[in-house]
Structure prediction request, 213 residues.
Amino acid sequence: MSEMSPVAPECDTRAKANAILDAAQRLFAAFGYRRTAMDDIARAAGVAKGTLYFYFDGKEAVFRAMHARTLADLSRLCDEAENAELPFPEKLYQLLDRQCGAVQERYARSEHLMELDATRTTVGADLARDADAAYAARLVRVFQGAALRGEIDIVGAGLSAESLVSTLLAATRGAKHGPEGPMELSAYRDRLRQIAAVAAAAVRPLSATSRTT
Prediction:
């Protein structure tokens, strides 16, 4: 028992912080970042306002912690997809869905999706920048690895992994919104699959027959 006693407070602290972040995520989705106050978060989390400030010194800190937690979750999901034995088009789709689709899933029903996306690049600008760079590097690595295994032919297509990834990510951002606003989750995921299919087709190796003709 004595060996476990130092661990319990740390576990309790982590659980309490996660409960606060869960409450904040629900409120941000329901009311947006600007309209959510620390009083609201404390009330939704079932903690005193003083307790909330013990964990986070303000709303920006809450948002940043929530965003960092989300990014860590997405990174773990992408690790699974990257390491899975999948055909290249499916692997590419899974990587897009586990990053872009998963974020959309969390907030797709929110009327404040655009505001939250903007907050991500202001309040959490450094987190977003580092995460976006890491995700782009992951996709470049996946393209390059598939090329080394002969699954795709980047050079033969006259492209580079970096240019492919840049175009791919621009397409995923543009696919979030239609003429009437944010896309429904299922429609967005359909678009992600189409984007992955087009990107994979662009670097599909020439068949032995086509090489000899």
Q: What stands out?
A: DSSP finds ten helices and two strands in the chain. The longest helix spans residues 7-31. Residues 1-8, 208-213 have pLDDT under 50 and may be disordered.
